[in-house]
Write a structure and sequence with these properties.
Layout (H helix, E strand, L loop, with lengths): L1 H11 L6 H10 L3 E2 L4 E2 L4 E3 L2 E4 L4 E2 L4 E3 L7 E4 L4 E2 L4 E3 L1 E7 L2 E8 L2 E3 L4 E2 L4 E2 L4 E2 L4 E2 L4 E2 L7 E4 L4 E5 L1
Parallel strand pairs: 1-4, 2-5, 3-6, 4-7, 5-8, 6-9, 7-12, 8-13, 9-14, 12-15, 13-16, 14-17, 16-18
Antiparallel strand pairs: 10-11, 18-19
Helix pairs in contact: 1-2
């Protein structure tokens, strides 16, 4: 029953309402979101654990996914800004047999360091860590860890330059 109410609270937040109220609802559902975080509307929350630090921002229509059966945590560091429609994909499959290539499901946490900027419609795949001060260009697909203070972009994301 508690899981049901958490789910309802997470769905309610998608409506247009002040960000401070959205933060309260999400914290009541079990997430750890700093009161100074700004969260826009239309976000889909399907992760078991979310932590947003001081001054962080999550843009409209982002999606945070993981398999329901396995825990997955997303951490967004201090003053990190996530543009609209970014996808956090914390869940994937092992490569299976020829009869079913989507094998066993597993989740991995996604961590964004302090002061990062993730561009619109980027996709962050399971287990990636973005180092503090880094930028992810719009539309990038991040499949590996990003060091601190670097600009990455493309599909798959590659280093463009140091910052």
């Amino acid at each position: 029953m508690i899981r049901f109410f958490k789910r309802v609270l997470r769905m309610l937040q998608a409506a247009h309402m002040p960000s401070w109220l959205r933060v309260i609802l999400l914290n009541k559902s079990g997430y750890d979101i700093d009161s100074t975080a700004l969260i826009r509307s239309g976000i889909r929350f399907y992760v078991s654990d979310l932590q947003m630090e001081t001054g962080s921002f999550l843009g409209n229509n982002c999606a945070l996914y993981s398999s329901v059966r396995f825990p997955c945590k997303v951490i967004i560091g201090q003053n990190s800004k996530i543009a609209p429609e970014v996808v956090f994909c914390g869940s994937t499959h092992e490569i299976g047999t020829p009869n079913c290539r989507a094998g066993k499901v597993f989740n991995k946490d996604i961590v964004i360091g302090d002061g990062c900027w993730v561009g619109t419609r980027s996709i962050l795949l399971p287990g990636v860590t973005i180092g503090s001060g880094s930028i992810i260009a719009a539309g990038a697909v991040v499949a590996s860890n990003i060091p601190e203070n670097e600009l990455w972009g493309g599909v798959p994301a590659k280093k463009i330059r140091s910052l």
